[in-house]
Amino acid sequence: MKVAIGADHAGFEMKERVKQYLESKGHAVQDFGTHSPESTDYPPYAFRVGEAVRDGKAERGVLLCDSGNGIAIAANKVETIRATICLNVKMAELARRHNDGNVLVLGSAFTAPGELAAILDTWFTAPFDGGRHARRVAQITEYERTHQHQ
Question: The sheet that has 2-7: what strands, in order across it?
Fold first, then answer.
């Protein structure tokens, strides 16, 4: 799977571990930065990853910052992006099964190192359940489509 990845300085070290793990699982990972632990702002990385997913250059995305909150908010400003913060395996499973999440957001300060692989494995393998969940995702997509400010 083609995966876009990005992080700010607080997520940099975990991003490097995630990138290595995903590549070891056979994913093609495109790294949109940051490329050092030097302080930086998170929105540009969120936008780059979101746009790569939106434009079909990546099938899914992964974003990291300290809490996950800011980078998730920024990513969700990109049309068609459903960025979901997943702090544990259950959240990762539900983000895919119920929300058809296409960008996984990890909080580096809140993700236990021993849980990281299980969260990634779950998020990348859990299917979207469709059904009533598809109806709900469609409502979000329709609102997004019809309420764009020009």
Answer: 28-31, 2-7, 60-65, 103-107, 83-85
Kindly report, residue by residue over 128-150, the tens digit of the pLDDT.
999 999 999 999 999 988 887 66
- Residues marked active site are found at 65, 98
Domains of the chain, CATH where assigned: 2-146 (3.40.1400.10)
Enumerate helices (H) and strands (E) in the chain, giving the number of each.
Answer: 6, 5
**Calpha distance 60→4 (Å, rounded):** 6
